[in-house]
Amino acid sequence: MNILYLENHAVLAAQVCQQFLSAHTVRVVPTLAAARDALGAANYDLLIVDYDLDDGKGDELVRACRILHPSLKIIAGSAHEAGNSALVKAGASAVCGKMEFDRIAEVIASLVDCPHQR
Prior knowledge:
This protein is 44% helix and 20% strand. By secondary structure, the chain is of the alpha/beta class. Helix 3 runs parallel beside helix 4. The radius of gyration is 12 Å and the shape is globular. The chain has helices spanning 10-20, 32-41, 58-68, 81-90, 104-113; strands spanning 2-6, 25-29, 46-49, 52-53, 56-57, 73-76, 94-95. The chain has a single domain, classed as Response regulator (Rossmann fold), CATH 3.40.50.2300. The strands form 2 sheets. A 5-stranded parallel β-sheet has the order 2-1-3-6-7, sandwiched between helices.
């Protein structure tokens, strides 16, 4: 699976990729601007989005993706419930909070197995 992972903490992103996403092709970007560029330049099967970013909030990208890439699976990946709630309200397909990344494979599988979800 080709995954775009929007996370501004490089050490955390590297750990998540190594421990939980190694079976996938993952591109990590740290900003909303970089994520927009990446989405315009390649096709992704899945987007994992943090909420609190250096150049804004992740729900901005989720809302834009729902318009430009309506079938893209999106996982909210904030450390805070309020952030995950905002991402879901904006259109994220599922939630896997930062403290629950050991469940990310299960969450990804649930999205792939349920194509009727956003």
